[in-house]
Amino acid sequence: MKLYDEKTLGYIHSIYTGGMVDGPGIRTVVFTSGCSLRCLYCHNPDTWIRTRGYKKNVAEVLDDVMKYRSYYKYSGGGITISGGEPSDQPRFLKEILIACRENGVHTALDTSGFATAEAAEEILPYVDLLILDFKAYDPRLYFRLTGQRQERPLQTLREAQYLKIPTWVRFVLVPGLTDDFDDLAKMSAFLKQHDNIEKVEVLPFHKHGEHKWDSEKYTLHNTEPPSPELLAQVQKIFE
What we know:
Helix 1 (58-66) crosses helix 3 (90-102). An 8-stranded mixed β-sheet has the order 3-1-2-4-5-6-7-8. It is globular and about 55 Å long. The chain is α/β, with parallel strands linked by helices. It is built from 8 helices and 8 strands, in the order βββααβαβαβααβαβα. The protein has helices at residues 58-66, 69-75, 90-102, 117-123, 139-146, 151-162, 181-191, 228-237, and strands spanning 9-19, 27-32, 54-57, 78-82, 106-111, 129-133, 167-173, 197-204.
């Protein structure tokens, strides 16, 4: 008897096979549609509106994932669910995670952590690896970056620590925006209190997704990627 509802429908933006950077090994990356955040540096604004994606049920997603099962076994890979924000569709996300776990596929959730407390409690027990995009430590900066309050991501991190879920933290370094050294030092000290965090990745800001934006709404036209020197300095803070 299946422990998941294979008929549950959700909205998918795209599915990418052969991923090598979104978790260990070779992975199938499922990008869901829908996100409540409006991050100033988002490189996938085309995933914001849920209904701009296409509908798939859990069985169809699982079929796409299982085609590459031998690659996962060989490389230690699996599925990574990204977005958009996957927890924007909590039931769909949960059923996919259960289906993959039941079929022996390693699961990673790439998320901003912007789930309700109830959704986090429902979803996280079926996650093998949490990849958490930690936007900023200062709550005012977090709101400026995303247009939302910070409580939900902090709750998600607390729940992951309670469940002892291995966690990778990702942070986007944007010159002139997220490069305040005092705030970064506080963030580093805060993250070190969580023994489930295995590593922190500092990702340099880029403008690869700028063409997807309405040019009048994109505010970082004149922002350049961080210099190698700045990137090295910030990486040292998180060592």
